[in-house]
UniProtKB/TrEMBL annotation:
Binds 1 zinc ion per subunit. The gene is htpX. GO terms for molecular function: metalloendopeptidase activity; zinc ion binding. It is an enzyme of class 3 (hydrolase). The active site is at residue 127. This is Protease HtpX homolog. The lineage of its organism: Bacteria, Candidatus Roizmaniibacteriota. Belongs to the peptidase M48B family.
C-alpha cells in the first residue's frame, strides 16, 4: 500500500515537471484526490447499495439469511452486519462497509433460494471473513488509489491538450520529462488496475480459506460455488466498478483460463477455488 501511494506521488511529480507546473501540480492532485478519498471512505457503502439496487432484508421473509448471519457473526466474534437483499435471480453475494462496526452483507434472492442452509453458511462465512480481514476497507482504499491514478493521468493529458505547457523550456531534460509523462499517463491506469485486480484475487483465496476455517466445512462453500457457477443468470445491475465485491464474478466470464484475460479478472478461476476447498 505504501508503494502504491509512493507510485502516485511519483506520477504527480513527473506530470508536474512535464507540464511545467512543478510542485503545484502535486498539490492540486492531492487536494482533489484527498477529497475523493474522504468521500469514498465514508459513503462508498451507501453508493454500492444504491448502484446494486439492494434493499434492507426482512427478518420474516429472509429468516435463514438473518439467523445464519447472526450465528456466523457470533462464531467469528464480529458484530452482526446489516443485511440487504437484491431482487435478482442470479445467485451472488458481497460484503461492503468501512469496518466491522459498519459492515453490510448483501445477498441476491437467487442465492437465498438456490442454496441450502449449510451452503448459505459457507457463503456468509466467506463474506464475514472479508469483513474480519478488513478486505472491504482494503479494497475500498485500493479502488480509490486506482481512481486517483486515473484522475492524475487524465488531468495531465487534459492540461497538455487544452492548456499546453506552463513554460517554454525546450531543454532536453524538459523534453524527456514530457515523453516520460505521456507514456506514464497511458500506461499507469492500466498498471494500477492490474494491481487492484491481483489484490482482489488474492483476497478471495484468503476469504475462502478463512470462511472454511470458520464453518469447519470447506465442502459447504465448494458446493455453493458450484451452484453459483452452474446458474445461467447474470446479475442485472452488475457493473465493472462493483464486480470485485461479489463472491463470484457477476459477468460469468468464460475466458478465465487464458493467461492474458486472467490478468483482468476480478476473481481467481472458480475451478481452482473449488479444488483448493475440496483438498482442505
Amino acid at each position: 500500500m505504501v508503494l502504491f501511494v509512493a507510485f502516485i506521488a511519483l506520477l504527480a511529480w513527473v506530470f508536474g515537471e512535464a507540464s511545467g507546473y512543478g510542485g503545484s501540480f502535486i498539490g492540486i492532485a492531492l487536494i482533489i484526490s484527498g477529497t475523493i478519498s474522504f468521500t469514498s471512505y465514508w459513503w462508498s457503502d451507501k453508493a454500492v447499495l444504491a448502484m446494486t439496487g439492494a434493499q434492507p432484508a426482512d427478518q420474516k421473509v429472509h429468516f435463514d439469511f438473518y439467523t445464519t448471519a447472526e450465528n456466523m457473526a457470533i462464531a467469528a466474534g464480529l458484530p452482526k452486519p446489516k443485511l440487504y437483499v437484491i431482487d435478482d435471480p442470479a445467485p451472488n453475494a458481497f460484503a461492503t462497509g468501512r469496518d466491522p462496526e459498519h459492515a453490510v452483507v448483501v445477498a441476491t434472492t437467487g442465492i437465498l433460494e438456490c442454496l441450502d442452509r449449510t451452503e448459505l453458511e459457507g457463503v456468509i462465512a466467506h463474506e464475514l471473513s472479508h469483513i474480519k480481514n478488513f478486505d472491504i476497507r482494503l479494497m475500498a482504499i485500493v479502488t480509490v488509489l486506482v481512481g486517483t491514478v486515473a484522475f492524475v493521468a487524465d488531468l495531465f493529458m487534459r492540461n497538455l491538450w487544452w492548456g499546453g505547457r506552463r513554460n517554454n523550456d525546450r531543454s532536453s531534460g524538459s523534453g524527456i520529462f514530457l515523453i516520460v509523462g505521456i507514456i506514464l499517463a497511458i500506461l499507469s491506469p492500466i498498471v494500477a488496475t492490474l494491481i487492484k485486480l491481483a489484490i482482489s484475487r488474492k483476497r478471495e483465496y484468503l476469504a475462502d480459506a478463512s470462511g472454511a476455517n470458520l464453518t469447519r466445512n470447506p465442502d459447504a462453500l465448494a458446493d455453493a460455488l458450484e451452484k453459483i457457477a452452474s446458474n445461467p443468470h447474470m446479475l442485472r445491475n452488475a457493473s465493472s466498478s462493483t464486480a470485485h465485491l461479489f463472491i463470484e464474478n457477476p459477468f460469468k466470464k468464460k475466458n478465465a483460463g487464458q493467461l492474458f484475460a486472467s490478468l483482468f479478472n476480478t476473481h481467481p478461476p472458480l475451478e481452482e477455488r473449488i479444488r483448493i476447498l475440496r483438498a482442505m
